[in-house]
Structure formats: structure tokens, C-alpha cells
Amino acid sequence: MLLRTTISLFRKDLLIEFRNRYVIGGIALYVLSSVMVIYFSLNYNDSIKQLSPVIWGIFFWLIILFSSINAIANGFFREPEGRSHYYYYIASPQAIILSKLLYNFIFTILLITLAFVVFAVMIGNPVTNLPLFFATALLGGTGYSFLFTLMGAIASRAGNNATLVAVLGFPIIIPLLIFITKLTAAAIGESEFTNEAFTNMALLGAFDVIQLLLAYVLFPYIWRD
Amino acid sequence: MIELLKKTWWKYTTVAILLYVLIGGLLVPLGPGITSVFPITFSSDTTVDFTLRGFNTHFKDAADVQVWFKNGTDFYCADKTTVVENGLLKIVFSFPKKSTNKLIGKSFDLVINDKLDGTVSIRDAVTVFPSQVADSTADSTQIKATCSPEVAVAKFSQFAFPYREILYQSIRNTFYHVPMWFAMMLILIFSTVYSVRYLNKGRIEDDILASQAVNVALMFGALGLATGMTWATYTWGEPWPNDPKLNGAAVGVIIYMAYIVLRGSLTDEIKRAKISAVYNVFAIVIFTLFIFIIPRLTDSLHPGNGGNPAFSKYDLDSHLRLFFYPAVIGWSMLGFWLLSIGVRIKLLESKKSSQ
Q1: Contact status of B22 with chain A (Cβ, < 8 Å)
Q2: Average pLDDT in chain A
């Protein structure tokens, strides 16, 4: 029952998205513009040729960070007030949060893919260990999307304050970013791909699971208003 | 709960404990230790005169000073020991040529023992370098005989704190920095319990308690960071080395500052209570994760994490314990006292506004 509700809510979100694609278009444009800004700033004195791969990774993950905050926060804020009441009666809060988590997860993965393609075309692709990078992207993207989904849910109850999503989410994303950049450095070849990478990945995975559980347990309390 | 904290005996006990900890912690002298060894390297074919300086040592007053170098389980006694004064010792030490093939590049611990000071030592005090002179026909298998020094059973009899390398006098910070973080953790757990209580029962007093607890915890966090940075400047060289536990602690403090911001952005009392209770539960899990679990898994300068021996077993001398446990209790009691004041103010305010 829970699964079926979740899937149907998820499909509803997808359907809304495909009908008027301005959300996905908006985010795609956000990513593209950000990459353009970086590209032009770097091209200023040809420093794009000297772009250290670690800086590449940092740029990449920062863009993903800001784009996903925007995307997810706006996703919550866009729900009209009446519709939330409707959902309250027809679906359990667990189903709602699971469908939102799943939707934002898919969204973030698409975002990362898009950003990676654009980066590769415009700024270069220093990644040598592609499987590791994709694993990092998967785990990191999951972390981002789960965290900002929960924070967006909290902020949507606090008057649709977009700054609040950032204020609540940034402290928690910082250690996540540390692990992600360490793994990206290993994927680029800047540091050794040792067992430490597996530890980092396990930590990221554990963090994602913890966030999932917390969101699952805590969302009903937020929803009850 | 608040009734307990209002009682006068709580306040007097807190003040008494904290005064005891502060005065005792600052006045108790530091035990004996070796401050310097000169020179710190020597060639294997030379006879070297070492100059050893001690802190709070009594070389002259004690009758029998034994000095030896230790490498693993091998002991090498000094050839000749001359006591100059209570804090200065000169020894003569030599290795025969070619006898130290096995020991070249290795470091020795220096150990001094006498009846008044007990045993004082420095780890890895000196290192052996290969000899400059070409080897002659000396027997290569001859190794300087190891000696078995008689380690006096006596220990330093005065009440003193242990003399630890790197820390020296700043070991006294153990009564400020560590108990503050303990108190902070305790108060945060308290806050989470009351947040969960609020989510279950809906009494607004629980929410007031939870939010004031976070305020007090933030104060302790700021103090803990300040004492930690002071300590780090003198022991690790800079106020903020790139250490996972420090970064985790900073992130934890920011997480709770975000809690305050969240509360500030909500105006409806019930909604504010509910949302902040949810965030509080989320925050304590993440906080525990960042402060305790992640530093243990990575390299860290902090004792107890990242391969260093745990803080409580090796570093907590019995003399330190006499002040450390009361310090934890004292700072926690102070925290709860501040919490009770905050809660009572808020309760009075809400009563006044509802009249």
C-alpha cells in the first residue's frame, strides 16, 4: 500500500514535470549559465589551461550544490496551499516523503549528468577513474537530494523561506562535501585510490541511509499541521 | 525538573565545585620531567657528553641517579653520571665502533630514575647515526652489554600533575576544555529528550526547555571552541589545524545556530515548537555523527581519535582525575543552572503575555 501510493505520487510529480517543463528547463539553464560564468572567468587570462583538476572537482560540486538547493527548494514551494491539504487526506506522510525523496533523487542524478556533460565539453574532463566518479556522484547526489528534501520540507512550513533551506542545509553538507571531494580527487588521479576511498564511500552511503531514516521518521510530525 | 535546579544547594554546590577545580587546577604543580637533551644525535663511534635538563627534578637531593637509554627492551646504561644541580645532569656515553650496526638510525628513549623523582623519561630522545670514520678491525659482533638498571620502586611523592611532552603546563586545560564539551553533549541530549516529549505530548513547556537548552549548549560550544583554540595554539602550533574533530565541532555549532535561525523565522508558537523539535532530533543525530564517529575513522590530532590512544585510559593520571571528574560535574551543573534561569524567564514571559 505504501509502495503503491509512493509510486503513484512519484508518477504524478513526473507527469506535472513533463507537461510544463519549465522546472527542468529552468534548472538546466541554471547549470548552463553557471558553467558559462566559470568558463568565461577562467578564460580571462587563459587560466583554463592551468586549471588544476582538484579545482575542477570543487567547481563541479559547488555548482551541483547550488543547483540542487534551488531545484529542490522550489519544488516544495511550488505546491499550492490547497493541494497540500488534498494530499494530507489521501496519502500517508511516509508515502509523500518517500515520493519526494525519490523524485528529487532522480532529479539530482539528472542534474549531475547534465553538469558533467557540460563541464566535459567546455572546461575539460580530468576524470581518469570513471566508475569511481560515477559511484561518488551517485552517493553524493543521494546525500544532497535527501538532505535538501528534508530541509525543504521544513522550510516550506516556515513560510517558504528559500534562505532557510540554505541555512539549515549548509552546515550538514560541509562534511559531506569533504568526503565527496576526497573521492573526486581519487577519481581524478590526484590522490591514491586506496582502501580509504572505500571507507569514504561507505561513510557516504551510511550518511545517506541515516538521512533517509530520519526523513522517514520525522516528516509525519512536520506534515501534521 | 526545574524545581530541582532552583534549589539553593544546587547553586552553592556548583560554585564550590567550580572554585575547587579552578583553584586546584591552577595551583597544583607539575611533576618532574626531562626538558631537554643535548646533543640529540650521535655517531656510533664516539663518546658523547650529554647534558640533560629536568623540570622540577631533584637530581642532587636524591642520592642515586641512574641514567640509561632504552630501545625496546634493551637498556644501555650511561658510563659516567655527574650531577651538577637539581635540574642539570651530565653523562658520558659511548658505543664501541662497529657495534651499533643494528642500531644505526634508531632512536633511543632516555630514562632517568632516582629515589625522589621516580622514573622520568623522554621517548625517542636521541638518534644514532653511522660513524664518520671508516671501520677498522673491531669485532663487528661485539655489542655493548645491556645493563639492567635497578628501577627504584619509589615514585614522586608530592601531589602533582603529570609532565607530558607537547602539553607541559597546558595540561591544566583538561579541566576547562573537555568538561565543557561533555556538558554541551549532556545538555543537547537533554534538549532532544524534551523535543521528543513535545512531539509526543504537545506541552509547550517542553519546547521552551528544549530551546533554552540549545542556547546554553551553544554557549558551552563557543567556550569549548575558544579553549580548544587556545590550547591548540600552544600545543599544535596554530589555532585551527586541519583536524576532522575541530571541523566536526565547528559544523556542529553551526547546525545549532541554524536551529536558532529556524526558530526565529517562525512566528506561530505551536508551529515553531513542532518544526524546531523535528529539526532538533535531526540535528543531534548528525552532531553525534560528526563529532564522534567521523574523527575516529580518519587521521586526527585529538587524543582518542585517528590512531591516538584513547583519552581516558592513557592520559588521565590519578591526580588529574581528582580534578577532572568534579570539573565535569561542576560545569554540567552550571549549565543546568543557566538552563533553569532561561526557562523560568521564558515561562514568566509567556504567562505575562497570556494575561
Answers
A1: no
A2: 84
At B174-198, the pLDDT tens digits run 889 989 999 999 999 999 999 999 9
- How far apart CA A141 and CA A72 sit, in angstroms, is 12
Fold of the CATH domain B33-142: Immunoglobulin-like (2.60.40)
Does the distance separating the beta carbons of A199 and B289 come in below 8 Å?
no
Alpha-carbon Rg for chain A, nearest whole angstrom, is 18
B203–A contact, CB cutoff 8 A:
no
Of the partner residues B261, B266, B294, the one whose CB lies closest to the CB of residue A167: B261
Asked whether the beta carbons of B244 and B299 are under 8 A apart, the reply is: yes
The percent of chain B in helix, strand and coil, each rounded to the nearest 5, is 50, 20, 30
- Domain range spanning residue A174? 2-224
Residue that is written with C-alpha cell 595540561 in the block: B171
The cell numbers describing B182, all together, are 561533555
Alpha-helix residue ranges (DSSP H) falling in chain A: 2-19, 22-43, 53-77, 81-90, 93-122, 130-157, 162-188, 195-223
B196 close to A (CB below 8 A): no
Retrieve residue A106's grid coordinates. 532522480
Q: How high is the ipTM of this complex?
A: 0.79
Put simply, whether the predicted model's pTM sits higher than 0.90 gets the answer no
The number of domains in chain A is: 1
